[in-house]
Every structure is written in structure tokens, then in C-alpha cells.
Amino acid sequence: MSYCVNCGVELDATASFCPLCHTPVLNPGQPVDEHAPKPFPTQRGEVAPASKRELALLITAMLASVAVCCGVLNLFLNQQRPWSLYVIGAAVMLWIWFVPPLLARGMHLLLRLLLDVAAVAIYVFLISVDLDGRSWFCGLALPIILWGGAILLLLGLVLRVYRRSVLTSVTILIGSVGVLLFGVEFFLDRWLSGSWEPSWSVVVLAVCAGLTIPLLVIRRVPSLREEVRRRFHL
Question: Can the keyword Membrane be found in this entry's annotation (predicted)?
Fold first, then answer.
């Protein structure tokens, strides 16, 4: 058995150079065996990448089969209530969430968020059809969905700029939660009573502000920022 003269690693009889440091093997007492099989593959093999189109077709077929099966069952079971709309709406929402971004390379953030918000709106609309609640869909659900989509769009654009800073991302997320809930209470009050009387959302917004302000101070002071990063391994 031969050993590398440079790093000392044990060499196979078929090795013409050290696999660790690539030092040539020169051993007159044991020539290199060129006929024995190598102890490791000599050709580099790569796993073929999965086809995105085939994966999209698979997801589409799975969701479509579930939606069709539930729709057919609904025709024979409890025809008075279209319960299959919940499953069909969920299938449509999941398809919009996964298939278009999978097929479209480099989809713009704005277009992707618009598709996601549209998927949620379609799902809630189908629920409102079953519950005879098109009025609350247009007056309450749709404004909340659009408000949440606007917050997500702004959040995505800001996080793309500050994506390298974990501390900044946490600060923006906390502030976004407060703004989102503040808008939710506004739409709820307008729908239920026709007037806006802020109550619990102000408390949530104050708590979020109380958490955001110290984080902003920490981010502005280099010594505090480095101390937080060191202690929390950020």
C-alpha cells in the first residue's frame, strides 16, 4: 500500500496522483495498476433538473381532479348547498399561487402580488356565493383584501431594498402588522356602524410603534447595532 509523500494519505493501487493534494504518485516498488476498477467514479454525473412545465402540469392535474371530483359529488350529495365551491376555490387559489410563478421566469414582484391577491379574492367570493353574502364581500372582504395586498406590496418593495439587514426587516414587519390591523378595524367599523371609532387597533398600533422605535434607535447607533447582532447572532 502506497502513501502520499506530501500529505500522507493512503493511496489506492490504481491512483496515479493523490486525490487530496494531487501530488503525482511515484513508487517504483508498486507501479500504478491501470486495469483494476477505480475506487471512485471517473466521470462526473449530474442529476437532470426537473422540468418546470411537467411539474406545473402535475400540480394542475392534481388540483383539477380534486375540484372536479368534489363538484361531481356535490351534484349527488346535498344539492341544495354548493359546498364544493370551497374546494374549487381553494384549488383555483393554490393554482394561481404556484403554477404561474413556476412557469414565468423572473416574474415581477408587482405582478406576483396581484395574482396572489386576486386568488384570495376569488376564493372569498366563492364563499360569499355559498353564504349569499355578496354585499359583505364587496363592502368588507374585498376592501380588507386590497388593503392587505397594498401592505404586502409595500412590504415586499421595502424588504428588497433592506433584505441584507435582519434588524431592519423585523422593524418593518412589526410596523406593517400595526398598519394592517389599523386598516382592518377601519373597514369593520365602516361596515358595521357606518362610522369610524378607533379602539383596539390603536392599542395594537401603539404597541407596534413602541417596539419599532427602539429598533430604529438601535439601527441608527452603530455600537448598539453591533451589540444586538453579537448577542442574538444576527
Answer: yes
C-alpha cell recorded at residue 69: 371530483
- State the DSSP string of 27-58: -TTS---SSSPPSS-SS---PPPPPHHHHHHH
In a domain, 47, yes or no: no
Mean local confidence (pLDDT), 3-20: 77
Domain of residue 147, residue span? 136-234
How many domains would you assign to the chain?
3
Q: Where are the beta strands (DSSP E) in the chain?
A: 2-3, 10-11
pTM for this entry: 0.64
Distance between CA 43 and CA 46 in Å, rounded?
A: 10
Asked whether the predicted pLDDT for residue 40 surpasses 90, the reply is no
Domain stop point among 132, 150, 177: 132
Residue 112 lies in a domain: yes
User: In this structure, are residues 118 and 97 in contact, taking their beta carbons and an 8 Å threshold?
Assistant: no
* Same domain, residue pair 231 and 173: yes
Q: How far apart are CA 38 and CA 13, in angstroms?
A: 9
Query: Cell numbers 393554482 correspond to what residue?
Result: 95
Three cell numbers, residue 100: 404561474
